[in-house]
């Protein structure tokens, strides 16, 4: 896989502010009290299952943060699967990327307004990925690719830190424009 492509896609998917120290329960993913038992053993299944779980969770008012977690966990695992499988079926990549864009649109929009939650979630995703060695993808390159993808976190962290104030200013301006706009035609 092209290292520049992996880095570019990782920039969209993975960021962290500071490394998290998680206990075993946290490393296993969000609260085990989840009403979504299908997440049990999800680390060994296709990343699309994480994306579907993320969509269902995010659609609920109290599931936004857990949905965010599973979206980015699925995103990281998807990139790992694609990068360690050569050749990877082009049609599956097209379908999965389209589905991730569909599910991810509202999630990314919400997380852009909740940057502290987003950054904390990326810490949790990184810790979860390191702690769950069982992967859907198996092969000689998979662990090296996973390490590479996790290794981009420092670069993304710097990007997020460097651009946070600008992003927050744009959000504030957008909200002010929306508040000032008339409600009707």
Question: Could you write a compact summary of the structure shown?
Answer:
By secondary structure, the protein is an all-alpha fold. The chain contains eight helices and no strands.
Question: What does this protein look like?
Answer:
The chain is an all-alpha fold and 185 residues long. The chain is built from eight helices and no strands. The chain has helices at residues 3-13, 24-27, 47-58, 64-84, 90-112, 115-131, 142-151, 153-180. The radius of gyration is 17 Å and the shape is globular. Mean pLDDT is 77; it is low at 1-28.
Strand tally: 0
Mean pLDDT: 77
Roughly what percent helix?
Answer: 55-70%
N- to C-terminal distance:
50 Å
- Counting H and I runs of at least 4 residues, what is the number of helices? 8
Give me the strand/helix succession.
HHHHHHHH
Supply Rg.
17 Å
List the keywords.
mainly alpha; 8 helices; 68% helix; globular; disordered N terminus
Q: What's the helix and strand layout?
A:
Layout: H1 3-13, H2 24-27, H3 47-58, H4 64-84, H5 90-112, H6 115-131, H7 142-151, H8 153-180
Helix pairs in contact: 1-4, 3-4, 3-5, 4-5, 4-6, 4-7
